[in-house]
Amino acid sequence: MKNNVVLNQLKSKAIWVVFVILFIGFAIANPRFLSSSNLFTIARQVSMYGIASIGMTFVILIAGIDLSAGSVITIVNIVCAYLMVNSGFSMPAAIICSLIMAVGIGILNGFMVSTIGIPAIIATFATQIVFEGAAYLLSGGTPIYGFDTRFKIIGQGYVGPIPVPVIIMICCFAVGAFILNKTYFGRYFYAVGGNEEASKLSGIRVGYIKYLIYALSGLFAGLAGIVMLSRTNSAQPTAGKGYEFDVITCVVLGGVSVSGGYGKISNVIAGVMIIGVLTNGMVLLNVSTYMQMVVKGLVLVLAVGFDCFQQKRATT
Amino acid sequence: MNDEYILQLQHIRKEYPGVVALKDVSLEVKKGEILALIGENGAGKSTLIKTCSGAVIPTSGKIIINGKEFTSMTPQLAAENGIAIIYQEFNNVKGLSAAENLFLGNPIRKGILVDKKAMEEEAEKAFAQLNIKINPKTLVGNLTVGYQQMVEIAKAIMQDAKVLIMDEPSAPLTNAEVESMFKVCELLKSKGVSIIYISHRLDEIYRLSDRIVVLRDGEYVKTLITKDSVVDELIHLMVGRDLKESYPPRKPCIKEEIVLDLQNVTGNGDKEINLQIKKGEVLGLGGLVGAGRTELAQMIFGAVRKTSGKIVFKGKEIDPKTPREAIDFGIALVPEDRKRHGALLGVSIKNNINMPIYKKISRFSVIDSKQELETAQKYKEELLIKTPSLNQLVKNLSGGNQQKVILGKWLAANSELIIFDEPTRGIDVGAKFEIYKLINNLVEQGKTILLISSEMEELMGMSDRILVLAEGRITGELRKEEFKQDSIMRMASAVEEVKKNEK
């Protein structure tokens, strides 16, 4: 028993050890890596992964998946920009409207998964394609730009030395951890992820919980989309393409079990940092984009493989 | 060596850690006879036949097939020696045709291609031999359950089975389908195939079998010649154990108030169930596996909806659509499959106990963690849950303690009617006694209990009154002074039909 506790402690911290090793490795390989401007770049880059990863953590916690996260980011980019530039919406109104739409997409996913019973991987794959197409249709395939200068603050501003997107990310992590640890919804998420049937028989309305989780996933992806729009200051119909892949990698790397029921926000933060450092470090070392893809794909396999291997060992 | 016997099991013993499932069981099967194997739930029938198929390796004993001795079987050895088993769950592929299913894993080939035509012709012949009309091209998924079973039988015969073992073959069938299955059995018998027929339905056994072997609690009891035996004797042999376990006494605590009143409740396989439970009563539900007891519990608990009838709870008609609604009314279910449906294994004791009341102890969705801890602590002490910490995951607890956590959850939810479905299955003797004492405490505190149990002794020891179900209907009611194993078994096997034939 005692041994087990120590081992579990080590296991739960292992991801941070990996992060530190990676960090030191890149620092030695390229001195520019440690410069304060580069560190802030990393922080700003990971902020969008971090924000979107919270919703994805909830989804994976109940053994689901949300492949539409990248498309939600894109469509939020386009819609928010469109409303501000073409429809004359004020900045806050445009932001709120596009976030409501992001939640709506999440609810649509929830409807397909929970009420109809489509496997999450197919349902969210379909939404991904639909909204990727919708983004092209709405934008006509061309970027939308020319926003109010105040809009830049969200993605490019600073409070003291700290970039605003990093502050938003930290707030989101705090909210995520609060939901998981302090509210009854968090307890329900773990319960549903661990055993749906037993949860139902314990009085949890599993259907509603799924709606809530996919809606939250939409919301956090939408927030990431707003931050991205502000950073790039122009809405691209390809803005979030492939983003879900990095977000899922962050979450799984952070130890959230793909079979549901286990996971902690604190470790997801480590997962996000690893992906951020890895991406940035590879760029500094002039690793080609294609090689980066190969490396990230391998990282995902390693992370999921480690999780599945442990599950398998636990059951046999 | 006696070549009258095609299959002999000699002194089969099977031990599992802590349990002896079979104690020195012997039986012989003659060529071309139908041998019925009967016994209560858990008498060891399934374990015994699994030793013939190789699914269970006996601890000691011998299996003799056609004069060849084996100490244990493998599925392949069994097939090679002509032993075939028709399980309740068919081993078929629904998306393939009947012919392809007959040749599953061993198709007729023409070079590297599958020779569909030849297989269909062979299948046609095989079906004709058994006098059954199935188009070999039909997809098995489109056949009725009865015909699917025929395909299984045809497959066994085609693989040259000498002994066909059938485990509850009539359970999923309609009456007409049972008739045609009987015809096939008789045809096979006339061709010299032996059949071991396992069934709870005594009327079938009397119609079909030549001899009956009775098992009880993993022991061989007796072999009867069917035509010389009477059903009362048979029932007595099945249940005639000495009652030796003791049950904790409880104060009389039955009140006048009727807590649950079911009126013609139908659905989920049950038909027109009428029952009433008074406050403070323990009502036992007896019957064989598949009699519809768990199904009834699911309807009361809102896990499955009834199709018609009324559920009246504490004088008010209710129609729970989800477990959540039933829980809010004050109904709780301690399910049969503790690990899959009862406890959340990967979640802590504290969270499990609070699961149904989290919403209630939260303000603006934020859990009152002090109250959470107090509730968990209270029921840990009250139910004597043995654990170093309330943060312990439930999967690390023993079966008895897991059951207590589930019970704690329902006490925290302030449930008034608690349905126990096989509450002591897989729990060791000491913990069993504790569960019984807890049940007594509950009724003494004014709770009401519906107790589903397949253990006859437990049912009689704990209930104030027993209702027996068979095939989705209530077949009898017994008051405390009328409790007798024979009577329960008689009601559970719907013996009246057999009796009529005897007269």
From TrEMBL, chain A:
Task: List keywords of the entry alphabetically.
Answer: Cell inner membrane, Cell membrane, Membrane, Transmembrane, Transmembrane helix, Transport
- GO terms for cellular component: plasma membrane
Enumerate the subcellular locations listed in this protein's record, separating them with semicolons. Answer: Cell membrane
State the superkingdom: Bacteria
Q: Where are the transmembrane segments?
A: 14-34, 46-63, 92-112, 118-138, 158-180, 211-230, 268-287
The record gives the membrane topology as:
Multi-pass membrane protein
Q: Which InterPro entries match?
A: ABC_transp_permease (IPR001851)
> Principal localization?
membrane
Instruction: List GO molecular-function terms, semicolon-separated.
Output: transmembrane transporter activity
Q: Name one Pfam family in it.
A: BPD_transp_2
Recorded protein name is Ribose transport system permease protein
From TrEMBL, chain B:
Q: SMART domains this protein is in?
A: AAA (SM00382)
Compartment(s) of residence = Cell membrane
**Stored Gene3D superfamilies:** P-loop containing nucleotide triphosphate hydrolases (3.40.50.300)
UniProt keywords (A-Z) are:
ATP-binding, Cell membrane, Membrane, Nucleotide-binding, Repeat, Sugar transport, Translocase, Transport
Q: Which residues form the ABC transporter domain?
A: 7-242, 254-496
Topology term for the membrane? Peripheral membrane protein
Pfam families linked to this entry: ABC_tran
Where's it mainly located?
membrane
Q: Name one GO cellular component term.
A: plasma membrane
Q: Does the keyword 4Fe-4S apply?
A: no
Q: Which domain of life is it from?
A: Bacteria
GO MF, one example = ATP hydrolysis activity
Q: What is this protein called?
A: Ribose transport system ATP-binding protein
Which species?
Anaerobium acetethylicum
